[in-house]
Amino acid sequence: MTLTLPIVKKGLNKGLLTTLELAKVIVPTAMVIKVLEASGALDVLAGWFAPFMGWLGLPGEAALVLFSGYFINLYAAIGSMTAMDLPMEAMIILAVMLGICHTLIIELAVSKKAGCPVSYILPLRLGLSLFVGVVLGGIIG
Q: N or C: which end of the chain has fewer CB within 10 A?
């Protein structure tokens, strides 16, 4: 296939549309995190979740990344992650955990429609995500 101007234009158009679609989630999520950070609410939330997140080798504020990834989608988690000053080790742990378990509300509905009971798939995905987080947290956290 030869690269032609119409192909390049089509690719650029699709790339721009994809970028705008992702930005609709990532930018507002990052803004919410920055507002929480500026107001001090992020520190309060981090304090509440710090003991549990410590098992995963993560700082307390990383709980917001997990919640946004588990319950909204991966792009919300990326928005949260980019707005925080997390160490690379924490981003790796979060990425692996969210790769295993993300967008639960939608994916559980899809799994149920496909015939897999929610009572099976939810504990499996969430449990495996947390287990891997604990293991990785112990290794690199």
A: N
